[in-house]
TrEMBL record:
<feature type="domain" description="ATP-grasp">
    <location>
        <begin position="139"/>
        <end position="282"/>
    </location>
</feature>
<dbReference type="InterPro" id="IPR025643">
    <property type="entry name" value="R2K_3"/>
</dbReference>
<dbReference type="Pfam" id="PF14243">
    <property type="entry name" value="R2K_3"/>
</dbReference>
<protein>
    <recommendedName>
        <fullName>ATP-grasp domain-containing protein</fullName>
    </recommendedName>
</protein>
């Protein structure tokens, strides 16, 4: 069978791949693979049938590569594609487990900063957080939602100097919730802060439990750290998802730490990485 990848469509040119993914689509075609288009805007509007309407019927099992989807959007997309004869190779449960921190955190315990979380709806008041942060050690912490941080608003909506200062914590969490607006994913996550070496993260791409590509994180595309994967690989296999990424940073004491896990279908591939280095490793269904 051929490698089939469903890319997001260019909102301005409905027959073209979104320019952000054009390089990748070209790599799939060069690899004798097949591509089709998904309308991400339609998916966000809740019109899943419109989102998949240009996918040919009975195209067969496929990977998605595109913008991030909420777990609900991914589930809707997977259902519509299954009915169309093009099931996604990552099950919605596996997508959510890799995409949202509560899904992968415990599997990576000891390898990732200790974290707590609580579900929260967009715009909801976080309330009293004292019980939530009790398991965390005192000192600095990082706040995010189940998927994304407001790292560019670090002091006001991401970093707290002391997690046991509940007034300040609540202000930072409220600001993060306000800035995420309707896109708040799942709820609030609070993580113990760890000091990294500042050299940039390494994004490792895993397929069926094997590291197939070690590249830079999109925030530091020019640097290429060389992480030790010995401790991470068993956790990746335990998570049991077919296609994921792990972002690794070197802690100042020399330990490689997992900053984040992500679903490989929606992790950004930096423009400095040759897409062929990834797509050559994506399994083709038999
Ligand atoms: N526990 C932590 N200790 C120290 N620094 C952290 C911690 N968590 C996050 N950071 C810093 O904040 C940045 C953003 O965090 P994280 O990667 O979790 O959020 P994000 O918004 O999902 O980012 P992206 O998807 O772009 O990688 C990290 O790259 C790291 O530099
Ligand atoms: Mg990150």
């Amino acid at each position: 069978m051929t490698l089939t990848v469903l890319f997001c469509v260019d909102p301005l040119h409905p027959r073209r791949v979104d320019p952000h993914f054009a390089r990748e689509a070209a790599a799939v075609r060069d690899h004798y693979g097949e591509i089709a288009l998904i309308d991400h805007d339609a998916l966000q509007r809740g019109d899943v049938e419109h989102a998949v309407r240009s996918v040919p019927r009975d195209l067969g099992p496929a990977w998605y590569r595109g913008w991030m989807l909420t777990s609900a959007e991914y589930t809707a997309l997977a259902g519509a594609l299954r009915r169309r004869g093009s099931p996604l190779l990552t099950h919605p449960d596996d997508y959510q487990r890799a995409h949202e921190l509560p899904g992968w955190h415990d599997t990576f315990a000891g390898l990732t900063p200790n974290s707590v979380w609580r579900p929260l709806s967009p715009g909801e008041d976080p309330g009293d957080l004292s019980d939530l942060v009790r398991p965390l050690r005192g000192g600095p912490a990082v706040v995010k939602d189940y998927v994304k941080s407001r790292k560019h608003e670090w002091d006001e909506a991401c970093y707290v100097p002391d997690v046991k200062n509940l007034t300040r914590l609540r202000a930072v969490v409220s600001k993060m919730v306000a800035l995420q607006g309707e896109f708040l994913a799942g709820g609030v996550v609070i993580r113990e802060f760890e000091r990294f070496d500042g050299a940039g993260e390494s994004r490792v791409w895993w397929v069926d439990g094997e590291a197939v590509l070690v590249g830079p994180h999109p925030d530091s595309p020019g640097t290429l750290p060389d992480p030790d994967l010995a401790a991470v690989a068993p956790a990746v296999r335990a998570l049991g998802c077919r296609f994921i990424t792990t972002d690794l940073a070197l802690r100042s004491d020399g330990e490689w730490r997992v900053v984040e896990v992500g679903d490989g279908q929606v992790s950004d591939l930096p423009s400095t990485t040759d897409p062929m280095d990834l797509y050559a490793h994506l399994p083709v269904p038999d």
